[in-house]
Amino acid sequence: EVQLVQSGAEVRQPGESLKISCEFSGRTFTSYWIAWVRQMPGKGLELMGTIYPGNSDTRYSPSLRGQVTIAVDKSTASVYLQWNSLKASDTAMYFCARRGDGWVFDVWGQGTLVTVSS
Amino acid sequence: QSALTQPASVSGTPGQSITISCVGTSTDIGAFNFVSWYQQHPGRVPKAIIYEVKNRPSGISDRFSGSKSGNTASLTISGLQAEDEADYYCTSMSTTSNLDYVFGTGTKVTVL
User: Fold this and answer.
1) pLDDT 10s digit of each residue in chain A, 118 long?
2) I need a labelling partner for A24 at 20 to 30 A (CA). Which of A78, B15, B38, B72 fits?
């Protein structure tokens, strides 16, 4: 059974950096796109970007390009979401999800709550 | 990349059927049969309940059904139950998104 396990909740101050992770368990890590989805407090789901672990092909939402970095480590079957300089507006729940057959996000991580506050 | 348009809220009484619309364009819903629907209870992880317009993943109740006509997809919940109270999101493959996807704005379903 495929599972995505995310790193724990984080609290940071504005301007700080942060890297959260999403570890894939099961077979075929390199064969499916992994997405990061943001949910700001009380708001809807927003697709931030996707990465294909097989060749590290990475795509970003135009509204977030340059603000975050998505990366993969095939040796640990993990995908990462990284900020160099957090803002209060980055406070949100972040989910990773696998895009399975049928173009559906069929497996989701449990979510990582990021709080940015001074 | 514009989001797919959903009604902000839909409500119904137990046992009733309700339908949530998801309006897109000819470059997303109208172009592909890759519409998915997700259910999210408060504080919980989203869960796929429909994929490829009308298919249900294993374990999903047959009270949930999906359809598409032109640029509009729909999710129907039959025999509404209290446990169906949640937020629902549609997604579609898209030719105008560099992410190949576009999400819907979300619909809050309330069981009266």
Assistant:
1) 899 999 999 999 999 999 999 999 988 888 999 999 999 999 999 999 999 999 999 999 988 878 999 999 999 999 999 999 999 999 999 999 999 988 899 999 999 999 999 9
2) B38
Residues composing chain B: 112
Which one, of B42, B57, B92, B38, lies nearest residue A2 by Cα?
A: B57
For chain A, the C-alpha Rg in angstroms (whole number) is: 14
Instruction: For residues A41 and A28, give the distance between their C-alpha atoms in angstroms, rounded to a whole number.
Output: 33
Ramachandran category for residue A41: left, alpha or beta (phi over 0 → left; psi -120 to 50 → alpha): beta
With an 8 Å Cβ cutoff, are B99 and A106 in contact?
no
Q: Which of A38, A45, A70 should we substitute to test contact with B (largest number of B Cβ atoms within 10 Å)?
A: A45
Say yes or no for a CB contact (<8 Å) between B51 and A106.
yes
| B48 vs A47, A104, A111: nearest CB | A104
Say how far apart CA B81 and CA B110 lie, in whole Å.
10
